[in-house]
Batch of 4 targets.
Target 1
Amino acid sequence: MKQPILEARDLHVRFNGVKAADGVSLSIQDGEFLAIIGPNGSGKTTLLNLCTGYVRPKSGSVHLDGQNITRLASRAIARLGVARAFQIPQLFSDQRVIDNMMLALAAKDGLWTMVRPLETAARREEAEALLALIGLADDRKRISRTLPEGHRKLLDIAVALALKPRLLLLDEPTSGVSALERFPLMETLMGALRQRQITALFVEHDMDVVARYANRVLVWNAGSIVAEGSPDDVFRDPRVLQTVVGVA
Amino acid sequence: MSNTVIPLLLDSLASAALIFFAAVGLTLVFSVLRVLNVAHGSLYSIGAYVAASIGLFIASRQLSPYLSFAALLCSAVFVAALFGPLIERTLIRWTYGKSEAVQILITFGLFLILEDLQRMIFGVQSLYEDAPVRLLGTSQIGGVVYLNYQLLLIGLAVIVVIGLRMLVRHTRLGRLITAVVADREMAQSIGIDTNRIFILAFSLGVFLAALGGALAMPTSGVAPGLGADTMVLAFAVAAIGGLGQIEGAAVASLIVGLARVLAIYYVPSLDAVAPYAAMLIVLLIRPYGLFGSVSARKI
Amino acid sequence: MRAAYAIAAVLVIATLPRLAPWLQFVLTLAIAKGFAALGVAVLLRAGLISIGHAMFFAVSAYGVAFLARAGVGDLATLLVLSVLTAALTGAVVGAFLIRYRAIFFAMLNLAVSMVFYALFAKLYGVTGGSDGLVVPIPSVFGAALDEPAFMRILFYLSLTLMVLVGLAVHRYLDSPLGHALSAVHTNEIRLEYLGIPVWAVLLIAYTLSAALAGLGGAIAGFAIGRVVPEFAFWTASGHLVLIAVLGGIGGVPGAFIGALFLEMVHTAAVTVTDAWNLIVGAALIAVIMFMPKGLYGLVAREEGTKR
């Protein structure tokens, strides 16, 4: 079996006496779309924090293409090709949508210049193309703080994509997005990911989205993975139906 | 060697006591109001000026010199009563909920105002009235002569530490303060009058600052510039101990007192710099002070 | 267009001393403080308030005095070396300070600047103590000058530097690095997740801001002819903060407008009262409470967020 792009081995971490990760191991293959489902507050975001250097595990390790990234800073992991979209969109909220995009693009390949402006023709074009892809083209001059929640989530994802990552971690990408827009968004997003050969790990609550787009599903509960398999297998597992809220 | 240890320790304790008085008000106000009052040093020096003025008045009228002790306490009460509620209601309250930058700039502006006010009211001469020191006399400890006043200060500092601890743990006010410190919004929603708590806490902080200045005045006098020197010293102590940690301020005062005295003994020209060297060392190891903590994770 | 206003303003300033020769000194000093305030304003972009920046102003001025005593006599050399000294000091001090934010950052800057003040005031043998050091008139391209001629050259040089350095800083603030600096204030976490090392962004900004303050300090040293420990005193830092805040969101022009305005007010106020700190403090509070966008914000119209 090929080396997985991301691998977590036996992660343990506690917050205020609660085990947020209790011996968690997982691996993601190149090109996979791996979904993580589980009840609210069970620590799924903590997993993403552990994989991106925001939280250090008490024990265990995280590997990217075999390289141990457990103790690396978030910025180093980002530069290795891992991008993240957050549960609560992390934006430069006093800036326009297009400024957010251009800064992200500059971060990728043009930060260390004090002489040329942030806004170059090439960068602007690229920013607008990405915004068009994700459906935010009309909003590009709006201050990001004034966007509705769903659009802010989209912007957060677009900013992550601007990094041209190999691995994209999405924390509830469709939360805040209206039911009508959910599938078109995922269609576009997954299409873009497939086209750019980006591997994705996404935490998700919408089971229809998971069923349609995930290759594999991990079921998370109280700090550990309790089930794993294809969407079909997982959704038929009675234990899963018990623990995951909202599954009929 | 052993005959320098005792003087060293006692000198450090005496120094620490004064330093503690300078810093405790600052860290107390921060713990309750989450505001770092950049004008704190000015309130210390105003306390010293008022105490000196009253003391000199007492001396000039040839009243009983024992009144000068009462003068020290009264100065602090007066300054706290005058400035505490006034500053809290007009300036500090305006900053609640606003960015920290605002808080810094407002209290810094106040600092500038108070420094000029002192100069205008009390003049540029240094003032000094040491009746309390003279009255208490001296003692011999370990072959070295000490001012009993210094020993009194050490005792008072200990009383303040214990007193504050008891206030917080064993009084109703203390429990209210603890609630407000733990979760301001929650405290408000269960009906605690946070405005009153803030005025009280801030005024207590002003009182402690002014008391510190007043108590230091008989030994060190007061002159223009004392406010600024005290402010940075108080901050250094609060930073070493952890902002908002009263016990931390006590420990930090001991550290700074020791550092200062060691400098005076061995490298006298650097004695003013010693507290900051200590701060630098502590912050390099524990960036938020010995008992300080970073705020919670945001994502 | 704003560039036209700027050019007009610079020309007006350049010709003012013809009308009122005593203005030349005031304007030179104002430009010097403008540079230092610009340094403060750069850090303000990242939400960091330095209430101790006068230390770099002083370090540079003392640097000029030391170098002059050591035999360096050329204006250009003195300027460059003293600014570099300030920048280097900034890099060293900044390396420690940029770990902090908000209140801690502000107070640590204050504390370090007061340590500098104490050292300048106490080390009598090296720094001349409270008397300070003389800053002699340097030679310009080899020519020795008398005072009036030098002061005229200093004025026009300061004006030129204001334009050139101002443009450079403007470009910096407009560059990706400058935008990243503002972004530190808004969302540091996002920056880190974009792979941007926030510490480096801040250290570069801090060093640059120290260099700007140093440039101001050197000019001030030359203009006054003397450097004293008070150059580093906390009230001096306070004046710089007021200028930066008055200049508000105006970026580069804002700092110089604020400096000119304040220096004029100071010149007028000094004839009436010596409670200048009180005025500065009250003005600072007033600006924060009632004019948060600063003087410049009152004048400039809202232009979306294009910066």
Target 2
Amino acid sequence: MCLAVPGRILGIQGEESLWRTGRVDFGGVIKEVSLACVPDAQPGEYVIVHAGVAISRLDQEEASRMLESLRSIDGLSEPGGEGA
Amino acid sequence: MRYVAEYRDPEWARRLAEQIARVVTRPWTLMEVCGGQTHSILRHGIDAMLPAEITLIHGPGCPVCVTPVGLIDAALQIAARPEVLFCSFGDMLRVPGTHGDLLSAKAAGADVRMVYSPLDAVSLAMRHPDRQVVFFGVGFETTAPATALAVVQAAARGLSNFSLLVSHVRVPPAMEALLSMADCRVQGFLAAGHVCTVMGTAEYESIAAKYRVPIVVTGFEPVDLLQGILRCVRQLEGGRHVVENEYPRAVCDSGNEPAQRWMREVFRVVSREWRGMGEIPDSGLGLAQAYARFDAAQRFGMGTEWTPMATECQSGMVLQGQMRPTQCPAFGTRCSPEHPLGATMVSSEGACAAYHRYRRPKVTS
């Protein structure tokens, strides 16, 4: 129910926040989603989308910081897995 | 997919599990609140990666599962009306009421449709001005902004043929209700990441302090879950109990303020009955006075008193974390996803459905 997935904004339509929508790319699947809850979101950014509504702009700095912190855990060096 | 694949790396997951094993010195019981996390744990076999000291119990984090049967009966009555086009998320359509589910109502001729977003229900109302479009709004704080937006859009468009059967619930009061139970075994929580994306972390500070329980806001991918467990175990081992945020790429302390504004505009906090847990004060959202005209229960004269259904289903115990799905005598025999006795076997986030789909046979050596 609380499944929400990150996708990249390709383009934005509408001015007023209630009606502002974005075309969002989810790894090749493109859907139109409401941007009414992320009024500052811009094309090129990643948003986290749930039930047709973007509920957050993905913080790319925090995402990299977490991966960095994993590397710094004692004994936890870079694995060779996909996307790492 | 970017920002997903990195967090599913099996090597990092394995090393985090090793780290947990190095940190733990005695038994701890943690509860993940969200059904999405429950499914991820079973799907990726995270429970099996953990040291024996760590027990994960599954919380009431499936909004479909905690919707009371009486409300589903009300939905069935509304859906059966000839002027109604009834819609909701797919999971909701398969939850059994006293007499069948919404999909069987559809098979019997009712106009019942599955939608992906509450906003799709508004589009249906615009395309079908001669029909009364009713959306069964169910979900935690994650989903409430989408439902709120649908109501505001319907109001802005002046739609008189759109209404809402509301079953929205709030997570923190349910966590407090669990912690207040005499036999509560939960020593640490993995809080539901996307609920906190919307609401932030402040609501959990008082719970962590009052019940002396660590609460780690956690994401949904294997690396997120293992990081959440590691941070929770570190707090327990160190005798600490604070709110930590393991999921900062999606959650900031104040949450999503525009989303909270839409919610405050449309909803007010009400008491709500949770299936298996009874009525929990302040645990639900109902329509605010200014939007009461969109209330489907009022529009179609449904009462607000619901009677519980007598059933063999023991989902209440499962939802409270008192019983594992596999301990239920009906599990996998009289109750399966094809023939569910209760919502926890239906919903894609229900704990019983997760065990049924991903359970691993016990191997004896």
Target 3
Amino acid sequence: MPESCVLSPADRAVDELVASLSRRGYTVIGPRLRDGAIVLEEIEGATSLPVGWSDDQEAATYRVRRHDERSLFAYAVGPQSPRRYLTPPRKTLWSAVRTERGFTIDEQQPAAPDYAFIGVRACELAAVGIQDKVLRDGPHPDPVYARARERAFFVGVNCGHPVATCFCTSMGTGPQVTAGHDLAVTELLTDGAHQLLFEVGTERGAEVLAELQTNVQWRPATDADFAALQQILDATAVQMTRRLDPVAARDVLINNLEHPRWDDVASRCLSCTNCTLVCPTCFCSAVEDVGSLDGERADRVQRWDSCFTLGHSVLHGAGSVRGDTRSRYRQWLTHKLSTWWDQFDVSGCVGCGRCITWCPAAIDITKEVAAIAEGQDL
Amino acid sequence: MPVDVGALSQAEPVDRLGGPMVPTRYEVVSRHQETADSVTLALMPVDAPIADPTPGQFTMLYTFGVGEIPISVSGCPQREGALLHTIRGVGATSRALCALEPGAVVGVRGPFGVGWDVSAAEGSDVLIVAGGIGLAPLRPVIREVLTHRDRFGRVAILIGARTPGELLYTEQIAQWRSVPDVHVDVTVDAATRGWSGNVGLITMLLDPLPVTATAASVFLCGPEVMIRVTSRNLVDAGTDPDRIFVSLERNMHCAIRQCGHCQLGPLFVCADGPVVTWTAAGPLLAVRRW
Amino acid sequence: MNTITIRDLLAEQAVLHDLPAADLDLIAGCARNQYFTPGAFLAREDTDANQFFVIREGKVALEMHSPTGSLLMETLGRGELVGWSWLFEPYRWVFDVEVVAPTRAIVIDSACLRDKCDADAEFGYRLMKRFARVIADRLQTTRVRLLDLYGGGNAR
């Protein structure tokens, strides 16, 4: 069985891929056009994808637009990432049930489905790897996340359509899918043909691909196919004008905790939490008690939290440590780009650009870092 | 590895889905009112007990339908026969915990964090400095040091409180005073009727220093301002900042370095602390609102 | 046209005005006039205390920072002298001094002035007396505030 092959037509390959993964018990999640944005939802086949759609993104701007009518993956990342499914925004950890003298603990919760993700970009896979370090690889793994990760199947897509907010090349996380995938796909769209180049990442990926080869027309990949892939990757890299140096940013931020730029960005930041909710690596969560009306049951519900909320840094019975926007923005950026290294030996940023696109105030972390670094040899 | 299609397709329920976030139940076996707003609860396990804590570690205490908060261990079950927690009622959950009567059931997770390594101080002088509720986590340290008094050089316990009425463990302080060759001194910020002890900031108990500054291991807990002032005084007096061990407070919420709330610069205080050296803490505490 | 010099500004300050003219000349050689906007810090806890200030107009706050915000001890305004950490080793500020209203202050370089005090002990003595008086006044008012008089006082 070859490690790579070319399947065509592309839409039929996707249909069979979804069918094969469904037969294996996966809930298949992929990009879908909804409400003017490309979101991640359950998909049934190629027609579920945003066929013929692309997107434009800039700071505080997101628009979908028509593209080549056949294209399947001609867009960048939307507001959601696999994080949405691997660590759900809201989940019940356990429940306390009142008894005569106290309470009992109910840990029975319905299990999450096994997810297969289709169309995942290299930056997304890098983000999953970072969340692994936080939620799975520490001394106290999150069992829901660990289970979801163990079972998740990833079909990566080599990115041929970056938007203006992307900067994965400078972060070393893209545009090529190189790790974390079961299968990698490159969309080869020419006047004459619409093919998908498949590359195998894992054995279970190879098994799925082998099954596709029994149902879809295929041929071994050639040097010409890989040349086409390289051409796509080169073009993508060239289009990325934003950049960030992840190693230099680490030092420049931690060495400038009182820089006047923090006041400047605080005057623009709305503390709305958007950046942290669209970020594929942000992991903060909070647990709250949700009681039943009769007071007999209390669910311990874990939900996504954000360092932009006042409650995030609250000390019990006192106030918040980070009571102003300046300190909250500084926490977000210094954690993401600097202290994340201390904690997890990696930057917390993958260069997906979501925090720039979805910031209603058009704050651009690459510009903020550059402003703080100005005159400091970044 | 071949994929086991059958296993994947089953959506079986998962036990212990909360994992490390699920507590063990403990019963309140006694309640002692320490001050107007603080209470010591003695807890015994209903389910399998948590691991034995070390001095300076904390647990997460849950009370039904209200919430869960970090409380430092003020008595280790292996020494006291029960898990002791002194709680000051300052918020909804802590007030609910303070109001519990014997027989009530709470949830306990832990023990968590890095505590005070008392055995590492053997052979040196020991200076214990506690301010306010900061005496609660230091009580197990004092217990260890006094139990093995002969292993240490000079030993001093310095305690500060806002008023005499807010002084914790007054009976035990009297006991500690009766131990030979242990220096115990107490001061309050403001006196009230009947108080005949010291009145003044806790730093006044540092001068003259009752231990040898250059030979001392220091265990320090109290409000952050007090930690800063005391640590700097001691460093100025010649104490090695690597041997000043301070206990930090941030928003410990999950206690397993996953929720992000307790960060102080690079630290997850819940796991990298709460006890850290002044060498580590000093630069972090110098940054406002971090 | 008359130009107002830093020497003139020093002579206007109640805390200094009756010093001998030669003393004011010495201080003027170490001083400059500066404007501070609210939010600026004249001093930061545990940093080098290499200046002190005489407030010409405005208001500054003596603070210590706590995890949940700044704890304000006292405000100082027009005519008041701010900072004596420069007098004693290790010359480190103990408190924060934050500007809370637009402030004009005379800023005196402390290393410069310490050298002059060391070179001229009588000048140094006269200056120390000024500082001792200010320090004693502040200590006395602080002690009375500790009594919590409006709260009924702390009778024993």
Target 4
Amino acid sequence: MFDRIWRIVIKEFIELKRDKWARFRLIVPPLVQMLVFGYAATFEVYHVSTVVLDRDQTQESRELLSRFTFSDRFRVVETASTDAEVARAIDRSDAAVALVIHPGFANLLRKGQTAPLQVIVDGTNSNTALIALGYVDLIAGQYSADYAADLVRRGLAGANAKPVVVNLETRPWYNPDLNGRWFFVPGVVGTLTLVLIVSLTASAIVREREVGTLEQLMVSPLRPVELILGKTVPFFLIGLAEVALVAGFGMAWFRVPFFGNPIILLLGTVLFLLSTLGLGILISTVCKTQQQAFASNFFVLNPMFTLSGFSFPISSMPNVLQWLTYLDPLRYYLVVIRGTFVKGVGLDALWPDMLGMAALGTGLLGLSILRFRKSLD
Amino acid sequence: MKLVRLKAMAVKETLQVWRDPFSLLIALLMPLMQMLLLGYGVSLDIKHLPVCVYDREASQDSQDLLKRFQASEYFEIVQVADNYTEITTSLDRGRCVLAIVIPPDFTERLNDSGASTVQAIVDATDTNTANIAMGYAQAVVGGFSTDAQISATDAQGRPLQFIQPVDVESRVWFNEDLSSRNFIIPGIIALIMALVGAQLTSLTISREWERGTMELLVSTPVSPMEVMLGKLAPYFLIGLLDAAFCLVFGVFWFDVPFRGDVATLFLATSLFLVVVLGIGYLVSVKIKSQVGAAQMGLLLTLLPTTLLSGYAFPIDQMPPLVQGVTYLVFARYYVTALKALFLKGSGIVDLAPELLAMVAYAAVVAFLAARAFRKNLD
């Protein structure tokens, strides 16, 4: 039995070796995608283009604005002199944030009263706007606290005055610098593996059917289980190699650390590959032509990608979609791969996801084998 | 060029699309699926983020602060921990994303020196969520801070004077609720156009090769120019129909504001379709296998539209070199125009640079595509 499976495996590899296009597809697009994702996929907010309008022109107003100039979160691109200029800068997207200080700002401050700092944000990109607003609050709050402390110290603020009360000390764990690449690079490894292995497996079987060589295999002494094992083992091995290649490249190029245990990642990858192989075979049993297989890949893989939590948090989705994510093997694998890369956690934390993948993998593989045997008759 | 032959070509292609379930699926079902999936699934807004709290003081003040976290729609307290180990376990297992620790001397310090510190530990695996969560936590604590100041009294029972020198008055323009749906949906139109356009056309010539009908096509009097225009016309119309569908669906189903004018939207969409269809056609002429052509078509249109157009990931945050590359990505101009049309209500004059860039792009692609197909069988 093993001998016959082994022969099919060898046949598949020979086919791959002779197919230049397939070899190219295995190596170049994944690496290119890793590069593009690594550089382009970022939600970080630095150097937000800012227009300032200082109509007070006092030491206080300049001091406050200079704190924005010296922060790496904002970059002052324009100093306006009228409200209309501010509006035009935002309208034309020359600036995403406008800081406006009205006349009398310093006078109010010196009297111990509250003076407004007017902020206008272009909300078109809601995410950048939200984060930028947070930084405006932080910088203005810091200035405010310093100014209040100064007033109190110099006894200018009245006997009962007290400055800011409660500080929040934030500690980002696992990724202290909030480096977005640590989040995206492991995610890309999972996504690419899903897309590649499912479409390879599906098209390999559909191709045999389309070309008509599946009938030849059927008249050979191979049993269906042997045929299916022989057909999937190569893609299983390719999947493992692909994960190693893409993950290694991502780690080396983008300096993403690996804090966890490689054995656990290997275990997770094996379980994940079961689902991808099952899915590939399942698609191949439904489709008669490669073109159909390609289209169904798309209809299956695209939702999986969107629902996996790759870039958009699952907890923000509506409930129905959240339930659907439990049927998505990529959802579990992303937890495992990010858990091992960034969090450095072990099986005690990852067992539910391993279990989820094992269940989905066995289910999909079992179903696909049943359907495959039927489709041979 | 004869109009009769052009029309015959277009009719043939339309029939072919109509009779091919695969093409119909892509032309009709794909936009609906994408719109629903991305419209509902793609959200960067944070709601009910799981929070773990460890109140080491358990006083009135500390409970008051934690109640504010519970009351906020952004957070949901899912666990009350009794020690640091529980917090670590909870964060490790992803049961909570944020942990709030209140020190045992919280109230004491508040009364003594007027300043106290609360610790927020956040799971930064998802950096964006972590960033937003820290901002909201900051706001909750800030609110507590302000109110605590107002209600505090000194030793003689006189109310303390509340000083807060600078108050940030923020106003958000164009997307007043900062809803990420308003930010994502206009870009989805570009995604769907790229997908539908490239997918359908990338097969148009390779299909003739694979089915062996190329010989027939070559033997007819139809000219290469007529082949191109006749083949692309139906897809162009499908693209416009899909764009209209997306516009109506986005505005009426997802309540995304549309503040610009529809004519400019369709002008921009037509230009974008010319580019996408042209690329799909070029790929189809060059790559003779249908699957290869479909994949190449996707790689050339969908990947740049998803990642390098500013549809979800802001271009100004990319490294300078990559920012330079985005000027070559035609989807960049279309996505900019879409967002400006939907949210800013920009007119044709404001969008002149983007439209001109797209005209240039469309001209180049159309020129290349017109020269690509030759009537020979090698």
